[in-house]
Design goal:
heterodimer; A: 311 residues; alpha/beta; seven-stranded mixed beta sheet; four-stranded antiparallel beta sheet; 9 helices; 15 strands; 28% helix; elongated; disordered C terminus; B: 130 residues; mainly alpha; two-stranded antiparallel ribbon
Chain lengths: 311, 130
Amino acid sequence: MSEPNSWAVEARGLGKKYRRGWALEDCSFRLPAGHICALVGPNGAGKSTFLGTATRLVQPTTGSLKLFGVPVGDPAVLERFAFLAQDKPLYPRFTVAEILRLGRELNPRWDQALAERIVRSGNVPFTARIGTLSGGQRTRVAFALAFGKRPELLLLDEPMSDLDPLARHELSGLLMAEAAEHGTTVLMSSHMLSEMEDMCDYLVVLAEGRLRMAGQTEELVPAHMLVTGVAGGDSGVPDELLRQHTVVESRVTGRQFSALIRPGGPLSDSWEALVPSMEEVLLAYLRSPEAPVLITDEARIDSDATKEAAA
Amino acid sequence: MSVVEFRIDRRSGVATYLQIVQQVQQALRLGILVEGDRLPTAAQVAATTKVNPNTTLKAYRELEREGLVEPRPGLGTFVSRTLARPDSAADALLREELRSWMERAQREGLDREDVQALVNSVLQERYAQG
């Protein structure tokens, strides 16, 4: 179960301090290989800083980060992952064929046939200059470059944010199919919560530089419940909920009290309970930075104690 | 070429893997899928619906547990049993009777919801949920 390679990402006490404060603080979690993981959080939550540390662009102030057991400080980690930045930086004057040649020359494990297939399936002409392509076509070429590297881990920063709905649908399908085909682990940041729901089976949630939630979606989401009932006298949270359950977020509207909770036992009949969607759970956590942290056993990693246990 | 394409309803509240299970069962009942057919691979499902490949594999494991499909390593997942009943003559007769029953209900002034409620209540009586 715990061979060194079964964890695509292992962060231990990872932190980054800039002059204005901590952008990422004491972040510890692990991501098992083979998952499609969403990295979620409001702007300024530390997502880009985290991706920066994973891609060696940002030097962490504290803690350590390993990809497939290799510390990110070790140059050997470079061939394990591919990173696609939000603005998809490609040389605009290069043709598509030239960009692929660049990928071929720079990457020892380059898969030219795969890269060409991805370009061809979108009918992107190989002779076209990158600067003349549409946003969707450019993203497709960037995906071709990223998958052509045959990475074990693909890191994506807001990959679909600047695309029209059609291109988004097409490229999401491409991403999922290629990841399935090659068993690539994917970690992508996104603000599109409802789209993440089907694509991702693992979640890492950051807010204000701290880890809020980590684990498989099928474990995290059903751990919550949306409850509605009669509000108590003083707009506070009813005692029953506080005693047995963990309240993530609550709201009073007139006489109605509603909350997203993590049930700690059976609920009494006075509550109407609904199963929330992933989007509802995420929104509740993003709105309530003070809500208790939830990390599943699988995603949990102790700062130092179990360091050797996995090796 | 795959034989079926799944349609995922993101607003239904039904878990995605269950939707895939139900759609395969339905396709088996309707005869769209028959014994020996290969189900689309997780990558093919992902390409058309954006569904996470692990979700598709979970659905296929569930179908395997129900004895409806079997994985053949390196080849894919194949339908191993058909749910469509061969006796379609009886089906046609029953359908005709149901149609004339509904025509009568309509004449008596029952609307769609009334008919649905009646059908559901008799269905509950006859086919208790196991």
